[in-house]
Specification:
The complex is a heterodimer.
Chain A lengths: L3 E3 L4 E4 L4 E7 L6 E7 L6 E6 L3 E5 L2 E6 L4 E6 L8 E8 L8 E2 L3 E6 L1
Parallel strand pairs in A: 2-11
Antiparallel strand pairs in A: 1-3, 3-8, 4-5, 4-9, 6-7, 7-8, 9-10, 9-11
Chain B lengths: L4 E3 L2 E4 L5 E6 L6 E7 L6 E7 L2 E5 L6 E5 L5 E5 L8 E8 L7 E2 L3 E5 L1
Parallel strand pairs in B: 2-11
Antiparallel strand pairs in B: 1-3, 3-8, 4-5, 4-9, 5-6, 7-8, 9-10, 9-11
Classes of the chains: A mainly beta, B mainly beta.
Chain lengths: 112, 112
Amino acid sequence: QKEVEQDPGPLSVPEGAIVSLNCTYSNSAFQYFMWYRQYSRKGPELLMYTYSSGNKEDGRFTAQVDKSSKYISLFIRDSQPSDSATYLCAMTGSGNTGKLIFGQGTTLQVKP
Amino acid sequence: AAGVIQSPRHLIKEKRETATLKCYPIPRHDTVYWYQQGPGQDPQFLISFYEKMQSDKGSIPDRFSAQQFSDYHSELNMSSLELGDSALYFCASSLGLNNEQFFGPGTRLTVL
């Protein structure tokens, strides 16, 4: 079993929908959580970085962390076709070296 | 804003040849991470450096070596290349450990 589990999808939604992406993890030592967006054959782009339980909002994106349940989420409001990409959750903190452990990634398609 | 620079962007090598990938972190970033991403897979951690010292090592073959230089750029050296080494190789940089990691555009290595 992977340390970080993420539903690979694919997830298809209409433009303007609210998207919910989720990851669960098993290692309670993880303390820092990130969400990346990756377009095909491009480098992952950092969307959100959080380190405490609760919500963090940035524009159309909201990251949610529940350390007690070992569960993180990313919400995308007013989704756009340009949001169509693979979304990767990543986390670190175990061993204090910054090494990221990624989920499998969720492929999102936003249809016009 | 300046981003992580990787060179070359594309590299084609024959089996048993040697390849050198270069990474130039965001200015003032002191930590560099290398990741390997196979087709349809999430990035896998290879090795990292903090202040020019190796900080962690993942599933990196003994055929691979890396270092971080005095100007904080890093090089990943890959010898005796195998077909299975064909992948996207990403470098990421951060200011200190466990902070936001920003990824470069990647080097696409093809081994024939």
